[in-house]
Design brief:
Strands 3-2-1-6-9-10-11 form a seven-stranded mixed sheet, with helices on both faces. Strands 4-5 form a two-stranded antiparallel ribbon. A two-stranded antiparallel ribbon has the order 7-8. It is built from six helices and eleven strands. By secondary structure, it is an alpha/beta fold.
Length: 206
């Protein structure tokens, strides 16, 4: 029943998000971008891990450009479905370094793998996509568990920031043991500081 509740909630929230108009996506994403860039721990992070937006996700193009202008090393996830994990690949030109990858998601071009891999232990901040969030840092992703494994096993040291639209935030996400908590949930209207909750719990990947 718990799993069914999570699936229903995820589908409902993604349907709500998909109803945002292009102008709403752009305007709300700009507000979220400003809040993310105002976080001192993100602005000062030498290495940032950032997803390229897909479908109705918070737009991240401006974040890529801002981090690069600030001189930060920026990397993006490449999905390895056969291993159920993510790789971090350095991005220097977001206009040309991406191509459709796993399930059509924009991912680093395969040719970058020969010289642009970034060790996960060097990442100081990770921007995490997802379907549903709560004010205490709870997150419900898209069902594959890729980010949960990456956060728990490969980059546990990194600050976790979840850019999300306000409509994606509920009172409480129905969490399971492996679900990783966020440090910040950032919406167009609110900044939720969840660090105390995350560091007070030890969530493990079996």
């Amino acid at each position: 029943m718990w799993s069914k509740d999570r699936t229903i909630l995820r589908r409902h929230m993604l349907a709500q998000r998909d109803r945002l108009t292009p102008d709403e996506l752009a305007d709300r994403s700009r507000a979220i971008t400003g809040r993310v860039l105002a976080l001192p721990d993100v602005a000062s992070a030498p290495v940032v891990f950032l997803y390229m937006h897909f479908r109705s996700e918070v737009r991240t193009g401006d974040l890529f450009r801002a981090f690069l202008v600030q001189g930060q090393t920026v990397c993006a996830p490449l999905t390895l479905p056969g291993q159920s994990r993510l790789q971090a690949v350095r991005i220097t030109d977001p206009e040309h370094d991406f191509a459709p990858g796993y399930r059509g998601i924009p991912e680093p071009r395969p040719e970058l793998l020969t010289h642009s891999l970034v060790p996960p232990g060097e990442i100081q901040a990770i921007l995490v996509p997802g379907a549903v969030f709560d004010p205490l840092g709870g997150r419900l992703g898209y069902g594959g568990g890729y980010y949960d494994r990456f956060l728990a096993l490969e980059a546990p040291q990194a600050l976790r920031i979840a850019p999300a639209f306000g409509l994606q935030v509920v009172d409480q996400v129905p969490l399971e043991l492996h679900d990783q908590l966020m440090d910040f949930v950032v919406t167009e209207a609110n900044l939720y500081d969840c660090r105390r909750m995350r560091h007070g719990q030890d969530r493990r990947i079996p």
